[in-house]
């Protein structure tokens, strides 16, 4: 496979101003894609976009519905189309259910689920225009494993996983491939820092991981690159539940 396997493609990465999102933007850019770096932090987003051969920073608060059309307009004005959407933007909260507030619920679910749903809805007509469109949703291992204090975050990511499977079924016949990446604790992912500070990683986490190390943002980016590229043309998140295979 060429190291410029995404040449001629346009990618949009949300939550791309640092951590996992920035690593994904850099990796897709290194593979030849033009990349729209979407996030709230102008200083960080501009720095990431400036590193790329063909990058564009688009500031956005994706919880605002009107921002979705603004982001799309900026991408179309600069690049003329869209081939790859990476839904990475996320918010995290930790707390037992009886301690959780409606404001925290709305903040986390509003970004992790609602904003992702409606941003993708806005992008779909353009992702479906050409052959080989891709959506990659960055989810969490928390969708299949639970722990105390995880009710809001993990359930929002479980909803995202269901969206991934549903979109794969809805749009697979039109050539759009939809997949997800479900990281565990990411060593250099800021969202994981509170967990790393609270848990003895060597004693309690590494023995449960076959590779005996934490994931890195680069690992998540490499998986995203594979799913966004031509090698994953036949791979999509879930066949119909009635498929006998």
From TrEMBL:
Its EC number is 1.1.1.-. It holds the Pfam family adh_short. Coiled coil: none annotated. One of its GO terms (molecular function) is oxidoreductase activity. It comes from the Bacteria. SUPFAM superfamilies: NAD(P)-binding Rossmann-fold domains. It is an enzyme of class 1 (oxidoreductase). Keywords: Oxidoreductase. Belongs to the short-chain dehydrogenases/reductases (SDR) family. This is SDR family NAD(P)-dependent oxidoreductase.
